[in-house]
Structure formats: C-alpha cells, structure tokens
Design brief:
The protein is mostly beta strands and 288 residues long. The chain has two domains: 2-81 and 186-231, Antithrombin, Chain I, domain 2 (2-Layer Sandwich), CATH 3.30.497; 91-183 and 234-282, Alpha-1-antitrypsin, domain 1, CATH 2.30.39. Helices cover 14% and strands 42% of the residues. The chain contains five helices and 14 strands. The chain has helices at 17-27, 39-53, 153-157, 167-170, 193-198; strands at residues 2-8, 29-34, 73-84, 95-100, 106-123, 128-134, 140-147, 174-182, 184-191, 224-233, 237-247, 258-261, 266-272, 275-282. Strand 1 (2-8), helix 1 and strand 2 form a beta-alpha-beta unit. The protein is elongated and about 65 Å long. It starts with a strand and ends in a 6-residue tail after the last strand.
C-alpha cells in the first residue's frame, strides 16, 4: 500500500507543516509538487504514479478536468495485491458450466474445480455457505459467501455485519470441499462522495468545511473522492488493486465432502488475518 500527496505549486506554502508531518509519520506518505493550472500534465503525473504502484492495473484515476487553478492538493492511496493459491486449481479441470444471473436467466462461464480441505462454514442466519481459500502466504485468504437461493445475494449484502470471519477460529472448521468456482475479473470506478455523505461526512464538501489544520485557506473543501478497483481470480491465484484519490474440532470420523457449486451471484472478500483488504460481489463472471 502506498500514499502520496500532490501539492499545488502556488499553494504549497499554505499547507500546514503539522499536517505534512502527520501524513508522513502515520501514513508513510511522501509529497510532490504539481502544477494544477495544467490539468492534463498534472493528471498524467498522478496517474503515472498510480500505475507504477498497482502494476499498471489502475489507469486514468484522475481526469484532467478534475484539476484546475483552484486545486490545493490531491491525496492518493494505492493498494496492490497478487497472491498465489496454496492449492492451485488445475487448468485442465476448468470447464464451462451454467452460472445463474437470476431465476430466469443464465450464462455459460468457465468454472474452476478443486477438491481439498478448506475452511468451511454454514451460515444459517444468512441462508448461505462460506468457504475460505488460503493463499501461499496463509495469513491471506479469499472468502466466498454463496447464498442457498439463486436470488439470495441481496439478503447477504443487507446483513454483511453477520459475516464474522475469524480466521483463527475457522482453522478448526476445515472440511473437504468439492469446489466449483468461476473465474472472474472486475474493474470498477466509484464516486465516493455520496457514500461518505450517507455515513454523515457532509460538511467537508461545503464551504463551511473546517480544514484549517490542513491549510489556512478560506473556503477550502474536498471537491472529489474517487476510487478505482481491479480484481482477477483464476487458476493461479488472485491479482487485485485499488486506488483512491481525494481532491481535497474433536477427533472423529471425517464428514463427507461438501459439494459447493458457486453458480449464482456471490460475495467475496480478500482477508489478511481478520482484516478485509478487498471486498465485492460477482453478479456475472463474464462481465468486467
């Protein structure tokens, strides 16, 4: 993960030293000057850094018209992840299977197959099943939550707080699973301002924002918060990237193997220990 601040060449003197120190000490963020009067060149400058930090998976995070002479600074966060499976899928076992988009429509999608002991749980309160696929670094894991019903995704997403993924506890929940999992690749661009406002973060986007500890400039506010994300899951493992810019068990006979066919919209999380690095849902594995 990397952070960077781009400061306007004409307003850099107004940015408080204490703010610079905090972002440097606590967020390991470096700073760089940019001429925001030239929106095209400064956007290229920022986007080049983002591409370098995300192995060229995130492109064009900032548009040239996002920047102008009134821009004081751009705060950028970039996160890149590439993980190899602990148990790789055999590409020869990948076959086309039906994936249900909803109760009335479906597509044929490349479905990977593996039979191994995985972390497995039934989630009766969500009418769903959960399986955890470890990466070669076993502190990392892809968690897939599959509803019992084809149209059960909305119920899961409305109750995400009930998905308590405790990796240490789940180590006692290993079960042999015959897993069919679709390959998928997702790219998204999201304007985060409406979501931040829903969470109560409203004033910072207005002229009444109190941002004097960042820079003592009248009318300073956050004008844009945008995030782009990329994730690809295949037989070898997972590659994922995200960038955000703010302008502004008892010993007994083992149970039989569980067959888990992920053939309907599902939720996924990439976990590091008990922390979520990436999360999202797959509605159609054939669409980016």
């Amino acid at each position: 993960m990397a952070n960077k601040i781009y400061l306007s060449h004409q307003y850099s003197h107004a940015v408080e030293d204490e703010f610079k120190k905090i972002v440097s000490d606590h967020y390991h963020s470096s700073s760089e000057m940019a001429n925001f009067d030239d929106g095209k060149t400064s956007a290229q400058q920022i986007n080049k850094w983002v591409e370098e930090q995300t192995n060229e998976k995130i492109k064009d995070l900032i548009k040239s018209n996002d920047l102008n002479s009134n821009t004081l600074m751009v705060l950028v966060n970039a996160l890149y992840f590439k993980g190899q499976w602990l148990h790789k899928f055999d590409i020869k076992d990948t076959t086309e299977k039906t994936f249900h988009l909803d109760k009335s429509s479906s597509v044929k999608a490349p479905m990977m197959y593996i039979k191994k002991k995985f972390l497995y749980q039934r989630l009766p309160e969500l009418n769903a099943q959960l399986v955890g696929l470890p990466y070669s670094n076993q502190d990392l894991m892809l968690v897939v939550v599959v509803p019992d019903e084809i149209d059960g995704l909305k119920h899961i997403e409305a109750n995400l707080e009930k998905i308590n993924v405790d990796v240490k506890h789940m180590a006692f929940s290993k079960r042999e699973v015959e897993l069919y999992l679709p390959k998928f690749k997702i790219e998204t661009t999201l304007d985060l301002i409406p979501h931040l406002k829903e969470l109560g973060m409203k004033m910072v986007f207005t002229e009444d924002a109190h941002l004097k500890k960042m820079a003592d400039i009248a009318g300073l506010r956050i004008s844009k918060v945008v995030q782009k994300a990329f994730i690809e899951v295949n037989e070898e493992g997972t590659e994922a990237a995200a960038a955000t810019a703010m302008v502004m068990a008892l010993c007994c006979m083992p149970p039989p193997a569980v067959e888990l066919l992920v053939d309907r919209p599902f939720v996924y999380k990439i976990m590091h220990k008990n922390q979520t690095l990436f999360s999202g849902h797959v509605v159609n594995p054939l669409e980016n």
